Amino acid sequence: MVALSNAQIENYWRDGFLFPLRVMSPEKAAELRRTLEGVEARYAGGDLPHDIGLYLRTSPHVVLPFVSDMAMDTAVLDAVQGILGPDLMIWGADFFIKEAETTKIVSWHQDLTYWGLGATSDQTTAWIALSDVSVASGCMRFVAGSHKQAIVPHNDTFGADNLLSRGQEIAVEVDEADATDIVLSPGEMSLHHGLLFHASGPNTSADRRIGLAVRFINPNARQEVAERDYAMLARGVDRVGGFTHFAAPARAFDAGALALYEEIREAQRAALAEGATGELNTYADRM
Fold it and tell me: Does any domain span residue 198?
């Protein structure tokens, strides 16, 4: 078990993040990386309704069993339970992949800005490393304590090198000297609050930087913008019923999972697109 200690829980709520947490062996992380890269190779020919990059970057847990298994790993859930309590749901998941020696970045932002969930603390993101995640490879950077602020104004940049859907960027100055580098080894995980200021730089290393971000909520969270929203029950029970539940996929890209993927994508895009000044990044070529 990776049950958090009282001190770790206190640190999370003080700083807005916690790392590193070992949730799997380096060998298991390497195996999962091979599985991911096998999926990339298998579907590179375009024999799916969308580019494989879209499925990996947005809600891969809906269509790929190995991703839902990663998200619902006991060690991951044990750690998240220390933050959100015993009733856990997966609201979203995203692979963040920066190719070696590339200029892709993530600008300073707060996750909750465009999720439609409001400024709630009934959520956390578990970011699981499948490669070495170093300063050189473009690790995340967090500003401790910034989660205690409300959602601050953001500007949409739609930058070509920005991995975010709108290139959203905090419209207030962030002092880089205040940031902590979130360095992780394969199989380690960080947790961070959705109001935390965070960003990441380019990958100047010789290897890909690969991580899976799993967006956990508990049943007290609610969708405030989109008419309907979805979540996968990972542990416990949902006594509130604010989200449509769905099961993990039985097989990769089966017909039912592909149809469900479209429903979820359209529902969540309604929240992501609220107030947007341009076309949302579909992620097809921006891993």
Answer: yes
Contact 267, 228 (CB under 8 A): yes
To the nearest 10°, report the CA torsion of 21, 25, 28, 29: 40
Which of 118, 104, 157 minimizes the C-alpha distance to 280? Answer: 157
Residue 283: inside a domain: no
Instruction: For residue 286, tell me if it sits in a domain.
Output: no
| CATH number, domain containing residue 31 | 2.60.120.620
Between CA 79 and CA 132 the distance in angstroms is: 21
Whether residue 80 is contained in a domain is answered as yes
The structural domain count of the chain equals 1
Domain span at 208: 6-272
For β-strands 106-109 and 154-156, DSSP reports them as: unpaired
Three-state SS letters, 32-67: HHHHHHHHHHHCCCCCCCCCHHHHHHCCHHHCCHHH
| Secondary-structure percent of the chain, ordered helix, strand, coil, rounded to 5 | 30, 25, 45
Token digits of residue 244? 């449509």
Say if pTM beats, i.e. exceeds, 0.90.
Answer: yes
- Using one digit for the tens of pLDDT, what is the confidence trace for 214-252? 999 999 999 999 999 999 999 999 999 999 999 999 999
How do beta strands 106-109 and 168-170 pair? unpaired
pLDDT, one tens digit per residue, over 153-208 is: 888 766 777 777 565 778 778 888 999 999 999 999 999 999 999 999 999 999 99
